[in-house]
Amino acid sequence: MSEKKTKRRDFLFTATTAVGAVGAAAVVWPMIDQMNPDASVKALASTEVDVSSLTPGNTLTVLWRGKPVFIRRRTQEEIDEARNVKMEDLIHPEKDEDRAKNPEWLVMLGVCTHLGCVPLNDKGDYNGWFCPCHGSHYDTSGRIRKGPAPWNMEVPKYEFVDANTIKIG
Amino acid sequence: MSDHDYRPKSKLGQWFNDRLPLLTLANHLTDYPTPKNLNYWWTFGGILTFCLITQIVTGLTLAMHYIAHADMAFESVEHIMRDVNYGWLIRYIHANGASMFFLAVYIHIFRSLFYGSYKAPREIIWIIGIIIYLLMMAAAFMGYVLPWGQMSFWGATVITNLFSAIPLVGEGIVTWLWGGYSVDNPTLTRFFTLHYLIPFLILGLVVLHIWALHVPGNNNPVGIDVKKPSKDTVPFHPYIVIKDGFALLMFMIVFAFFVFYAPNILGHADNYIEANPMVTPAHIVPEWYLLPFYAILRSVPDKLLGVVAMLSAILILAVLPWLDTSKIRSAVFRPLYKQFYWILVADVLILGYVGAMPAEGLYLLIARVATAYYFLHFLVILPILGFKEKTLPVPLSITEPVLGGSPNLAAAKNKESKIE
After folding, report:
1. Closest approach of chain B CAs to the CA of A9, in angstroms?
2. Tag placement on chain B: N or C end, fewer CB within 10 Å?
3. What's the pTM value of the predicted model, to 2 decimals?
């Protein structure tokens, strides 16, 4: 084989391939992106919940963006239990004070961070939630304590619009 | 191959065949020389073709009545069951057909494992087969979502969430798969589209699978190469066609038993409750044919590693031709491999059993031991066995053992030449 010399034809070949690749990518991207959440799904961003009927020690489950949200009015016992846990005992260390600004109210996505099942109320070894699918135990602050789930249950953005209404999202 | 010089008898046939050699292909398939010692374990290729066609035909007819919408899917399935003429029959054939398909494919795969059908020169056939198997699992999973019952919904949630184990991009991928922030209508419509597409991809791969098979020809219970055509082979038609046909009839009896007498025994009662994103069923279990892999997933206490272990358990099969270092194909002549083979069969059955049980206590312990053994078999035992095992003498030809095969070569050859 003789030494390779860049020719006019090599340049044309490379340039054509490059333009072709960019063109192909430009066509493929819309095909991929059409599968992402559409405008109508994104539009359902927030929901308002009346919590006046909720008594301490009970949980209200509402649907937000297709997912259940747990609104728990905690008893003093549960709050104390959540706040007295040492950080080093936690798999995913988060202070209860950061998760529940108003200690009486715990608002979080009722979705197990393992594979997305809905954990059961007042179950498990830590008096909080228990996921029946693969056995994750959460405490009274919704923090993962035992089992395959890697993180605490997620706290969404929410605010009290007035004393009896929570706006999620 | 011998069919290159094939010429149709009729003038019209010749005219057509000169322009499109379809008749040459048909002749090749008819005359195709097949080892004469194939046993009934070899009939599952034909049975699987039957299963695929059954699923496509019943699926097409169901799609004429099914509505892929989160608000209507569950009702439309009940409409098929109650109102559509023979809808109950078509749906039960389709639903149980999936189970029958997997039953046949597992027998087909374990036949290959026993007789070493994945070894050179048949690696490509084997790898295409593994791809077909993966597509079958994808099709089965998405099909199970379509009735939009509780198991559909939560099965879809759990399986799609497997992708969230991927670091950094995992959550984004899951949202992309869902087309929303949870499994919902966009998820259902795309699953329906893909469920419709995949069987035709499988059909294409089946053509490649058979094409690749027809290059070296069938392996056989003795596992040695045969000269073809020779007195070691018989033409595919009528010999194998009749044998396959008989086996298919037996298989259809089992199939019909499930369809007519126990149509829901392989399913879950929870799937007759409409999908409810607020409540997870107490015990989520996949269909029986996915249980061994589900057990592997649950036996690893880490989310990412669990997913990796489950995928590896399937993908490890693709490299099996290179993990098994033994030159001898058939387990008949591998006394040690034969024992490990049956241990593996038991191991997979145990994994399937514990996959259906709650992941705790003794079940979890058994699942962990069985998972470890599964990988040990492929990654340690098979590579070492090829070097250490003392194999039995392999006969010279397929005909030899039939004639009461003697280890004495001269005597065997003498006997064979007498037949000629």
Report:
1. 37
2. C
3. 0.89
